[in-house]
Amino acid sequence: MKIIPIGVWGGYPNKNEATSAFLIEQDGFRCLVDCGSGVLAAVQNYTELRDLDAVIISHYHPDHIADIGVLQHAAMVGMQLKEWDTPLLFYAHDKDPDEFKKLFYKGVTEGRAIQESETLNLGPWQVSFCETIHPVYCLAMKFTANGRTAVFTADTSWKEELVSFSENADLVIAESNLYEKYLGIIQGHMSGSQAGELAERSNAKRLLLTHLPQYGDLAEILNAAKSSYSGEVEFAVIGKSYEL
């Protein structure tokens, strides 16, 4: 399993970059995890768009879906040029029917509903889900194949159930949008120390921090994560390949 960060920002992209999204690959299957602002341009540094096999969406906030429309346009052009021969599949929850319907576009993309209670067989992976604590319905994801596991927390406040959901993961990719001083003030997100606590208590082998703020001294978030996690931790590095 190879995971490549495409963007690392929360809310909106920093200049010339993208919001938090990841390309995950295994056995020739490529899945894009979230598709927010700037992601479509950035992901083309690592794959041809026609080689994407699936897109999975955690929730319908703009920083996670803003580029879906232009990806649909790319699929449409690809179909017209006969470079794509099957619709691109978007996997997302259907708790918001209006947003879910937008995943269907002119026969070139189609939506597939994911459920918290069900495990999805997606390419080489089994993907399971855990509802997070966020202003809208949002799902954390766990990809498992060949005894290796990667967890994406998506956007969330601290939730105790995420500890068992992430148990013994080879990699936890945790949102870390808050400086410690904003705990209890800004809702729906975790701080660096909480991301570290999640990785420590779940016995995760490695921790990546993502969904970062554009302001302040990011070193504070990394140091806070290191204060509560004894394992290897770093900010997700755009374009770096993390092999499991």
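the 2nd protein, sequnce then structure:
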Amino acid sequence: MKYTPAFFLTALLLLAIGCKPRPHDVKIDKTLPAIYPDYVGVTVPFDIAPLNFAMISDKVDWMCVEVTGSKGGKLTSEGEETDFDIDQWHQLLADNQGGQLSVTVTARENDQWKSYRPFTILVGTSPMGEWGVTYRRIAPGYSMYGLMGIYQRNLSNFDETPLLLNSQIPGQCINCHTPNRNNPDQYVFHVRGEHGATAIHRQGSVELLKARNDTLGGSMVYPSWHPEGRYCAFSTNKTAQTFHMVNPKLIEVYDNSSDVFVYDTQTHTILRDTLIMTQAWSENTPAFSSDGRWLFFTTALQKEYPKEYQQQKYSLCRVPFDVKTGRIGQQVDTLVNARLTGKSVTWPQASYDGRYIMYTQLDYGYFSVWHPEADLWLYDLQTSTCRPMEEVNSQLSESLHQWSSNSHWFLFTSRRDDNRYTRLYFASIDANGRATKPFMMPQRHPKAYYRQLLDSYNTPNFTSRPVDMPTRQLMKGIESSERVATRP
């Protein structure tokens, strides 16, 4: 009898299938499985990558997982961790919009099989509506210019690509990649170091502004685009750092002074106003409203630093903005008063539907990533009320949040995973302003990936399409001394 290559291939496949562990003498466990990441009871959009997971216990060496849709469909995975087929996963979610998935886990640990109580994953009716996200990956110490980069990630699968690495421009720090309303064609980011610059990409071209402006007495920091795209608000900060030996916050970042201003990209003009550039107060973290009629910012009475760094508490304020003239209005409104709350506000971000401002509240200061008490809060612009987002907050730092374009989803960073690195989480929000349980950004092999990743996610943003960054042009421009001058 003649054996063909196809025969041997079939025999090997059958042998491989036959060698897979099969559950036997299964013990029923009425508890939920302890999985990593924690996807139990989360709500996901139907355009998200597979929520692959593993058991937390390293003693588990095999799992058999079955996912069943309430509106039909089934998906299975076997192995040391789940590895769902991407196309089958998307089809299952598409078929179950507004429904739920029931996930049954049977796992082997120390040669004992256990079948756990099924858990659910809810499938939202609203898509994320974004191609992906951009973020900076950086070592969490912030003490020196180590290896860092700006990356983009496709949220429907696991593809991550670098946009710009500081190894391409040695000795420089790159940060704060900020698009205009998640538009990848218009963005700004900063380069710090010997060849410092503020890079602005709009209308197909890149401008490199002088990193430091003598008129401002500092650099451009913390940008926020006006929705019409001509103006961009910045703060200018004289920042200092201190380090704790035993305090769990480890690092304190504070400003000896800061102001807020608006930059006109057409005329290269710095638009200054005494309402947002005062001597006795530090204005910071600007954010335009969704309609562009208001400029939100935070402000704190100047103290003696670093002696009184714990007394630096920021209020949330706003001023009118006239896009026709590029001018600030005549009155400052205080929305959240630090003197009344005894707390500090930072990172205000207005939802694109005009309903909410999401911000971070902490005990003092504004650099919240090392403050375990930092939580997300939601200010309702219709009712002028605010509340802590208890449904998404943890015992560790939540911060650096952004809205999806449809305002049904948001992202944020949190240290809840291990209190060392900030990871990226997503949640949805309903018409009543209630958020769902957040889920960690999916990875194909999440347990190994996050154990090996020695970077924090920093300044994340949604992007509606892949960013086509002219990397070579930027590298050449950054290494040169040519910069666009700004004027008062």
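The chain has five helices and 35 strands. Confidence is low (pLDDT under 50) at residues 5-17.
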